[in-house]
Amino acid sequence: MTIYEKENYNLLVILQVKFEELTKELHLKMFPEEYNFILDSAVDISLRKKGINHMSENYQNEVNERRKKLGFSNFESSIYGETLKYCQNLIINKEK
Predict the structure, then answer these.
(1) Would residue 96 count as lying in a domain?
(2) pLDDT tens-digit readout, 53-74
């Protein structure tokens, strides 16, 4: 590999890392509900395992209405990764 090719490769790696960081940052801001489980208590975890959502009904309705406006299903029935792909496409200015 030439020095020029190594420089290009290193630049591509840096750009890929930045793209992933931007995607995660945008995803967290647009779909924070997908990260709520991180702060779950032991009781919350137990409820989730039983299929019980411990979030308030009002919060769930707000989340699902926002998701619906963006063309996504309710959070409980969403397909993992579809919102992340949406954020990637927003960054590269590509249609869903």
Answers:
(1) no
(2) 888 899 999 999 999 999 998 8
How far is it, in rounded angstroms, from Cα 26 to Cα 23?
5
Measured distance CA(66)–CA(46) in Å, rounded: 27
Name the amino acid, one letter, at 3: I
Within-domain flag for 51:
yes
How many CB atoms neighbour CB 40 within 10 A?
A: 13
Residue 47 or residue 63, greater confidence: 63
| CA 3 to mean position of chain CA atoms | 37
| 25 domain residue, yes or no | yes
Tokens of 91: 């960054």
Whether residue 75 is contained in a domain is answered as yes
